[in-house]
């Protein structure tokens, strides 16, 4: 029953994201290429509300605080000033909310996931594995 | 007692989220709470939620997979009315009554 519910929900998810993009077909090639380029250009990328100097949202701020705590440098992109990016990343990542964290081109999660990785102590091992210098890692 | 009170005054979106999560995950424990009163949105808005779901469906899955299952279950609401969703998705075997984190303070969010 879960699989059926999940499959139906996946179909709904895909169609509702298409509608949200307004382009009648999901992400344009141009936007997809743009986001591709962004997540590959820097090791750690955060799509957030506001900037790392001035986060405009408590969830985005928490992601910045976790990364700062571990001395992880990251490139931030303010979705509040970029509507194409704001909607585009939700389709690209198949993730409905902001903030979104990418490490070495791979989607890691949002605020809940970053905070829980930090609290469980998982985050240092994860960053070590990915070759990202961090304060409490063993490398 | 707080939980009972919020269930009694639960809005339609909260009830819908609760129903969908119950059906999809057959949870051992489920909490659905609107947090829009903590954000800079009109009174009565149902746009920000926290959900804590304890279920066998999360056993053996990485945290991101668990979150994706919840996102998929609530996809329609997330594409429309629900603007922020805090998720605590716990496999039954790891459940020992732990409470979900407090929400971070709203920073204004440009009024959205």
Automatic annotation (TrEMBL), chain A:
GO terms for cellular component: mitochondrial matrix. The lineage of its organism: Eukaryota, Metazoa, Ecdysozoa, Nematoda, Chromadorea. GO terms for molecular function: 2 iron, 2 sulfur cluster binding; metal ion binding. Signal peptide: none annotated. Residues 44-108 form the Glutaredoxin domain. The keyword Membrane does not apply. The keyword Plastid does not apply. This is Glutaredoxin-related protein 5, mitochondrial. Keywords: 2Fe-2S, Iron, Iron-sulfur, Metal-binding, Redox-active center.
TrEMBL record, chain B:
Gene3D superfamilies: BolA-like (3.30.300.90). Pfam families: BolA (PF01722). Belongs to the BolA/IbaG family. Residues 93-112 are annotated as: Disordered. This is BolA-like protein. It comes from the Eukaryota. One of its GO terms (cellular component) is mitochondrion.
């Amino acid at each position: 029953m879960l699989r059926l519910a999940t499959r139906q929900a996946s179909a709904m998810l895909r169609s509702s994201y298409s509608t949200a993009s307004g382009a009648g077909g999901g992400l344009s090639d141009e936007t997809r290429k743009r986001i591709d380029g962004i997540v590959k250009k820097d090791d750690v990328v955060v799509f957030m509300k506001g900037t790392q100097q001035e986060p405009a949202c408590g969830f985005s701020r928490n992601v910045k605080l976790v990364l700062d705590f571990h001395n992880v440098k990251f490139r931030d992109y303010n979705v509040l000033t970029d509507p194409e990016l704001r909607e585009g990343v939700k389709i690209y990542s198949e993730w409905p909310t902001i903030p979104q964290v990418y490490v070495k081109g791979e989607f890691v999660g949002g605020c809940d996931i970053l905070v829980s990785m930090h609290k469980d102590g998982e985050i240092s091992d994860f960053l070590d594995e990915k070759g990202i210098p961090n304060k409490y890692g063993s490398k | 007692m707080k939980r009972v009170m919020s269930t009694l005054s639960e809005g339609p979106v909260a009830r819908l989220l609760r129903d969908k999560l119950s059906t999809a995950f057959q949870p051992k424990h489920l909490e659905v709470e609107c947090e829009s009163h903590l954000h800079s949105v009109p009174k009565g808005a149902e746009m920000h939620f926290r959900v804590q779901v304890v279920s066998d469906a999360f056993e053996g899955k990485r945290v991101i997979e668990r979150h994706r299952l919840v996102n998929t279950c609530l996809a329609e609401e997330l594409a429309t009315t629900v603007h922020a969703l805090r998720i605590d998705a716990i496999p039954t075997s790891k459940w020992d009554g732990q409470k979900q984190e407090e929400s971070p303070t709203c920073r204004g969010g440009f009024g959205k």
